[in-house]
Write a structure and sequence with these properties.
- Helix content is about 50%, strand content about 20%.
- The protein is of the alpha/beta class.
- The strands form 4 sheets. Strands 13-14-15-16-17-18-19-20 form an 8-stranded mixed barrel, surrounded by 4 helices. Strands 2-1-3-4-5 form a 5-stranded parallel beta sheet, sandwiched between helices. A 5-stranded mixed beta sheet has the order 7-8-6-11-12, sandwiched between helices.
- The structure holds ligand C2E and magnesium ion (2 copies).
- One magnesium ion (MG) binds near residues 350, 409, 441 and 471.
Amino acid sequence: MITMKKELRVLVVEDSEDDAELVRNELADGGFAVAHKRVETAASLKATLEHESWDMVICDHNLPALDSLAALAIVREVTVAVPFIIVSGLIPDEVAIEAMRRGARDFIRKDNLSKLVPIVERELQEAAVRADLKVAQDSLHNVSHFDSLTGLPNREHLFKHLKSKMACTGNDLSFAVFLIDLNRFRQVTKSLGMWAGNKVLVETAERLRVVFGENDFIARLGADTFVAVVPNLDQDARAEEIAKAIHNCMDEVFQIDEHDLFVKASVGVSFYPKDGQEWDDLFKNAESALHNAKAAGGRSYQAYRPEMDAYGKERLVMESALHHALAQEEFVLHYQPQFNLFDGQIIGAEALLRWHQPGSALIPPGKFVPILEETGLIVPVGEWVLRAACKQNKQWQDDGLPPICVAVNLSVIQFRQPGLAQIIKKILKETGLSPEYLELEITENIAMHSEEATIATLDELRAIGIQISIDDFGTGYSSLSYLKRFPIDRLKIDQSFVRDHQDGTNDDGIVMAIIGMGHGLKLKVIAEGVETKAQVDFLKLKGCDEVQGYLYGKPMEACNLALLMTETTRSNKEICEVMA
Ligand code: C2E
Ligand code: MG
Ligand code: MG
């Protein structure tokens, strides 16, 4: 039977060739296939360790140019893992004990070489155990220090880094903490799923790695928030340049499957030591700056200023008050009339939510709808809006006013809500409103979801008999191809295009293109934000069907809209009588 010999690479530190040969023979007799090399000076020992790998170092105690303790120091400088065994003719006990204390694994007298093989076998086993342990420790370190999705350092690692940086940073040193948060990331995961969200995060991490340098520390804090610590940075101007680079790197489209996603980021920054001597203050202040940047919207950047602290408090207070606002009946709807551009008839009204917190003025939706969306409260509040608007519209009809359509804004989260069609059917039944008098306004971002699922929901809603319009058209995820496939009734041209109307500007071109496209698809086109006679004339000339805006009427209480409807009907009747 042939037994395979175990390979053993031994580095022998020995001045006598004969003694080295004895060691080699002993190991070969013990069943090892020995590959060995002999060295006898510090320089050759070091060079050999650096260029080749060894399973074992066997060292004489007393060489002319080196002793075992000095050899051990050189070995440990290069590697901690290789077992070091002293094989010597004469070695004083205290030196042997000192060598063991410094990391030698054993010592054997040259006249007792029979001990060598069992010791080498034991050492090889223990080295293997130590190697396994090291792998386990490394992976534990990775799990506890790195984010498994992006491979970036995680929150704990970041805080350790910040703490140690602050512990050793002298007064004259500085650094900046950048907090980077993706805008509307929840919508990506809600619309396209976790998998798509994860792809965006991984790619964001890669892009950030390119923006920041080797000496910067980038981490993922959790969810869609990243952090970068940039040393030697204490000026707002340079931080702003870095923020611009972050925005630029996010400008490129994220291609997730067949979807082209545009993901923007908000950036907040605080500086050490100016904005906090302790890491938690510094971090809290970067968060304040980030919240302010987020409130500004878009691809924004803010450096911390002490007056920002109020924002965080205000937002917390608002969030907790919003949890009770529905039960305490603090929401009200205002209605803004919509007109047919050619005969001046009121054809509809958009229901716009306001929050009447006791003791304060009416709060506009831009201030609290994003919080309702982030907290999920938009679902019950949105249902309340639908019910209240349908009830009011039925009331106007019961009061003998000419029937109009009430338009209700629906956030993407509501649109994705399972059973939405059932809820609407129930509300129409409860309030007695006929479905053709309800319109839902949705934004282009619903198209971020799979087209099939979006079309299925739209079909379900249209089957009820209600109307659907695309709000703020032209500003969102504008894939014109989806328009053809979506069962919708109306496009609302975003007010930014209407507001900027000046003859011959680009926005005029956009307005004209939207009207042309809408009509090509047999959709009605309504312009919102109409404030001037010049805008009306232009819209009329280009064939826009309907208008909504301050020129015709601001959002108003239901009773005032009833008055306006009565007046408009009367004056139209008078015009008709005069013309008859
Ligand atoms: P929107 O749906 O695009 O509503 C039109 C906004 O433009 C309203 O602001 C309206 O007051 C304003 N507006 C109308 N005409 C003019 C004009 O001629 N000039 C100017 N400068 N502004 C005009 P509001 O009421 O502050 O609503 C803002 C946004 O809040 C709405 O934009 C809508 O996205 C959201 N919102 C309002 N109510 C609800 C709701 O019940 N549910 C949801 N999900 N969102 C809502
Ligand atoms: Mg709207
Ligand atoms: Mg709008």
